[in-house]
Amino acid sequence: MNQFFTAADYFVLNPAIFLALFGCAILLFDLLLSPDPKQRKWLLGILVVGLGFAGVALLKQQLYLNESGQSQLTAFQGALTIDRFALLFNWIFELATLIVAIVSYNYLDIEGEHHGEYYALMLFAQCGMFFLAAGTDLVTLFVGLELMALSFYVMVGFLRTDKRSNEAAMKYLLLGAFSSGFLAYGFSLMYGLAGSTLLSDVSAAISKRGPWDPVVFLAMATTAVGLLFKISAVPFHMWAPDAYEGAPTTITAYLSVASKAASFAFLLRIFLGPLASARPSWEPLLTVVAILTMTVGNLAAISQSNIKRLLAYSSISHAGYMLLGLIAGNETGIQGIAVYVLVYAFMNLGAFLVVVAMRRKNIIGEDLDDMAGLMYKSPGYAILMLVFLLSLAGIPPTAGFLGKYYIFLSLIETHHYVLAVIATLYVAVAIYYYFRVVKTMFVGEMVEKAPLASSFGLRLALGITGVMTLAIGIYPEPILRLAQSSLLK
Amino acid sequence: MDQHLLSIVLFAPLAGFVILLLIPGSQKNLIRLWANLVGFGSFLISLLLVSRFDKNIPGFQMVERVDWIPTFGAQYLIGIDGISLLLVMLTTLVGFLAILSSWNAIDDRVKEYYAMFLLLQTGMIGVFVSLDFFLFYMFWELVLVPMYFIIGVWGGPRRLYAAIKFFLYTLTGSVLMLLGILTLYFQYHQQFGAYTFEIEKLMTLDMPLGIQQWVFWAFFIGFAIKVPMFPFHTWLPDAHVEAPTAGSVILASVLLKMGTYGFIRFSLPLVPKASVNVTIVQILAVLSIVGIIYGALVSLMQQDWKKLIAYSSVSHLGFCTLGIFAMNPNGIAGSVIQQINHGISTGMLFLIIGVVYERRHTREIAEYGGLAHVMPKYAIVFAIAMLSSAGLPLLNGFVGEFTILQGAFEANRAWAAFAVMGVILGAAYLLWLYQRTMLGQVTNGRNLHLPDMSAREIAVFLPLIAWAIWIGVYPKPYFDLLEKPVQQIVQRVRPDYYQGAVKADAGTRQHGGVATMQAGAAQ
Questions:
Q1: Any chain B CB within 8 A of the CB of A443?
Q2: Residue B80 forms beta bridges with which residues?
Q3: What ipTM score was computed for the predicted complex, to two decimals?
Q4: A473, A401 Cβ separation under 8 angstroms
Q5: How many domains, in total, are found in chain A?
Q6: Which of residues 103-162 of A touch B (CB under 8 A)?
Q7: Of B112, B171, B179, which is closest to A431 when you measure between CB atoms?
């Protein structure tokens, strides 16, 4: 009989424990504080300390892997695996949570909804993401997903008095629950096939049956639906624009970066794990989905006049590009997804941060027109936004180019020439709508003259994302090595 | 400093750009002065390149190599041969003159304007000196953003349309070109087991014709849009008409050369089998000839002075591409010379439009007439520019067009016959333009008291005029400079070309074929 909770288990689970504990600590401590919004700074402090503890725990794991030369650490009889893949994604989550949290402090004041639960929910969500990146067991993964999703349902609807926020949360909840149902159905079939919830056992069972076995196909299809919903791939993207628009902008940023990264980690674990041998059956399916995702994302973005919706559609199209890496399926492609997710975290966070800064007391600042003449009002923000948009479009020398570069290269290497041409042509479409924003910022006539919101946290966060977006683009070597070592084999 | 001279030339404008950002925007004159200093300084530094360059050494010189992204084999690898040297000099000179010419023309958002120009300058030089495809692509794309802003912010009434059209056209071309680059990169890895973007290494690839053709067309789209070749030229008139004067000058003089340079530096040597493929050569030659004649005919019909010059660019660039795809030393050398010539003369023509536009704020040809009476100095400068563009002997245009026609004649007589029609039409639309704007009586009362050119305005033209006359009267140094690189390219594309020449010449001079050929080109 195995011991249930060993020191090794604890070591692997450590980051999640800290995240959960500090999340609870925020909830408790919040009760002691007076309702004055200023007091919430203590909660932000707890969150940062919690992230610090989790970060140290992750660092220890990373160092342990480096020193021992092992490729992974497993715990709970294989239900959790810490490998470099999991660590890379966890670093992305840490970064995203930290940046969103320090920006939220000022933003929530402006929105007039500064409550302690917000910070606790962020930590809970990140805890869920930890399990998505590190889970190698169907149940662990599913629980992780639900933990993350439930936190997000609440955070999306955090602006209680705002109709759009409520609507967004409701839509997201209903569709999210629906997709989780699909996923659970797929997982139950996998369990039925293998008689075990461990991904390694499921892999063995599926490869024995072959890709075209009807049960395998059904399990693959239903699981794929659930996963594609989470990464907002077309035709399961309907929730994204509404949720992105209605949610508090900080949460939109968080949702579009951290949640998407976690879902991609999850998707890769499943498709490169249990479903790897079923590739012949899902490759055509995902190819169609990827093309549709790029098409709808890019074309719908053209006509948006709300900047958050525009970025929502752009984020849909990015999911399409990342899927292409999986379709190519070789080492370059998988590495490409890792690089893409990483640079996407910086550039997309950055772009949303500028939108966060647009929100001021009495000014919603979400319309494209609100950005008019930004260059002559707040040149710093305008130039940063330009950098982020160029990066999102994939123009060198910004980080975004690297992500695209790897995806294109992997498609060429695997002889997916048509896909490569389609993907490159959509870059030109994308530049059109990103440059609608640029045009408004640099050439448009200023509508209102109120300066953009600014706080220490916002400036720090913009500084980090902006510098990283350029630095990775100009000298990507360290990031590439990191991604290369994090390949999921 | 000597080893890094090329890097200094490349990054001097960028350094100037960074310092410019530190100057407060209200100090307009200080900003102008600084930008001019940087432009002039960069030009002076680049003159050192000429003195250090040894035309007798084949291959690239002043090579600098630093590992940049070892993970996928991209290097910071720059160097120049005769072709790039000429284009770099053109860039630094015209770049400086464009900045100089903007002193009075731009009074709005001055800081941003000059910042964009300096950034553009580094991007353009980078394109001409990169010997690593990844680096090249970075610079190639870097050029787009500043040019978008120059057109989109300081341009005419339809500037936003023109700017995004320019951006979308070139970007579409360049992403497809990227696919071609990646194919080469991947092929190299398959054959040699290593990843590299180094152009000289990629040249050692041996690929079947099928793949070469795909790569060729991918490159073709990227370069042909930039040149622009017919039928990808439609962005050009819009961009030229809407851009501010200095923007048009840079666009015509330097930016378009990125496309022709791409053909010479990349298409020909990297995919030689495809480049000499009969079908491809025929298609390219026909497109070039259509461009030459179509561009000239459309120029004849223009009511707008600037649009006329814009379409004339399509025609002149048609000569350049025709020369390249004649695939012989005369054609290619002539093409490079003609690229420089076009940079000089069309740059001057756009500057000339800028001079009257600053005074009258219209470009309608019908608004002018008889300006020679009011602005005699202006009429002289315009005459020189116009004649140099029309290809009058003893001016630069003649040398380039003549050599290209020689090359075309050698390749296919019909091409030469059609191209000659372009020369005739070219003289027609330019002379007619001159007649309508400069000669006769002053038809419009508002033109009666226009001031003639100021000293600063004349100073802008002097170097270009001097250069035009130099090339026209004594082009030998230029042909000498191009001899080695052109020979290498022809050797690469048509290995049998020189052998044939040697055989034909065997009776008298065993190994003198090459020399005779070059001497012929130099005449």
A1: yes
A2: B61
A3: 0.90
A4: yes
A5: 1
A6: none
A7: B171
